[in-house]
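During the reporting period the student researcher (J.K.) took over the structure-prediction task from the postdoctoral fellow and processed the backlog of single-chain submissions. One of the processed entries is reproduced below for the supervisory committee.
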Amino acid sequence: MRTVKIVSAAAVFALATALPPAASPASDRSPVPGGGSALTLTLSVADGTNSGVFLTCDREGGSHPDPFTACGLIRRVGGDLSKLAYDIDMICPEEYLPHTVRALGTWEGRPVWFGRTYDNRCEMTALTGPLFHI
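J.K. obtained the following structure tokens:
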């Protein structure tokens, strides 16, 4: 068992360099005229399981199983999904089954692109909460 807080320097470097410049926070970009808050969320697991949903947060809805909680998580970080830290004290097993998540859309009219790969579902949940439980 390990705590998610323990991250090697190599892992931090890999995450920092894996995201293209387009993955900058939503707050750093100009708003899209008349834009709202709507995202497409996808999850790809190394075992071949793939899923995706649409989430709207102007009026919580879409095909996400819990749009109210998902939108609340995103609101807490102002649309910058790289700042999500749901339960960093969660104890996770040292299993390796990569979970890759992506979010593409707009937050309060600003373009959003987010992508990360986590070692397993527990690590994904510790950092993103139920946002990618799709």
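The committee noted the following: Confidence is low (pLDDT under 50) at residues 1-27.
J.K. will present the remaining backlog at the next meeting.
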